[in-house]
Amino acid sequence: MNERSKGFGKAGFALALLAVGCGTAVPPRQLLDARSAYNDARLGKAAELAPAELHTAKVSLNAAEQAFIDDPESAETYALAYVALRTSQLVQTQANTKAAKADLDQTQREIDQRESDEMSRTRTELQQARRDLTSERAARVAAESRERDAMQRLAAAAAVNVKEEARGTVIVLPGSVLFTSGNYQLTVEAQSKLAMVADTLAPQAKTHDIVVEGHTDSRGTPTSNQVLSESRARAVMDYLVSRGVLAQAITSVGIGQARPIADNASPEGRANNRRVEIIIKPREAR
User: Fold this and answer.
1) How many CB atoms are located within 10 Å of the residue 80 CB?
2) Is the pTM of this model over 0.70?
């Protein structure tokens, strides 16, 4: 038998006793409802969350029961039964309110904890991101320093001009060193110089784009100069690839006579214009 059944069993026994003591008097509806309401409160959350209020309800119900024993039909009996009913109902409401507040407080604590955990994770992630960024910057600075050192060594060893421009690092190779007049076949000296260039560019090709530009002086027709510049740029590119420069990182283009760096009126100026430029630029993130 559960607690609720026990409660109703006791109430039934009390009713039997009252029936004996009061003849055929039947408890008013308010008193029956008061008993049921009290029993619900006693077996619900009130015993734990509102024990003092539950005791008050019990006292109120006892007063109604006593009035019924004294005079079942009296106005006092009805009034006290009504008061007992409302008191027990109020106890239930108070207990349910406290339970709801406790649930709300628990929910709020869980929300606060989740927010705290999330903020903690965010701070940790930001700190890690800062460390990664610092490490990345340090690695980039170190790589740039190595690249500059490599270019300086290349310039000294191969006797080539290396300069920094907005478009990137530019290696300038005189055409007279690379090719015979009107030809695009690399000379033996050119291959020796380009071998050193390739050794310098091969590591950088993983993170840089490389463009080989061919240039001519103004002698000859623009069309023939364009074709010659393209062939010379391609010859240099193919040789660099054969020496280990990543093929996907390098392209060639012929500029022809369109971009002189000196006056074509003098032999010296024309010699300066006949050149191959290799431009190395950090690859943009994709």
Assistant:
1) 23
2) no
Q: Where are the CATH 3.30.1330.60 domain residues in the chain?
A: 159-282
- Any idea which fold 159-282 has? 60s Ribosomal Protein L30; Chain: A; (3.30.1330)
Of 61, 72, 68, 70, nearest in space to 39 by CA: 61
Closest CA to 213 of 269, 262, 268, 251: 251
Give the separation between CA 274 and CA 272, rounded to whole angstroms: 5
Distance CA 160, CA 201 (A): 14
Could you say which DSSP state residue 171 is in?
Answer: E
Question: Could you read off the pLDDT of 78-103 as tens digits, one per residue?
Answer: 999 999 999 999 999 999 999 999 99
Which of these ranges, 12-16, 34-38, 247-251, has the smallest mean pLDDT? 12-16
State phi, psi for 179 to the nearest 5 degrees.
-135, 155
Q: Cα separation of 19 and 69, whole Å? A: 9
Taking only the tens place, the pLDDT of each residue in 206-234 is 999 999 999 999 999 999 999 999 999 99
Helix axes 29-43, 75-158, angle to 10 degrees: 30
Q: What tokens does 66 get?
A: 């006593």
Q: Which long-range contacts (CB under 8 A, 24 or more apart) does 101-106 make?
A: 102/49
Q: Where are the beta strands (DSSP E) in the chain?
A: 161-165, 168-174, 208-215, 250-256, 275-282
The 3-state secondary structure of 17-41 reads: HHHHHCCCCCCCHHHHHHHHHHHHH
Stretch 37-65: mean pLDDT? 94
Under a CB-based contact definition with an 8 Å cutoff, are residues 159 and 176 in contact?
Answer: no
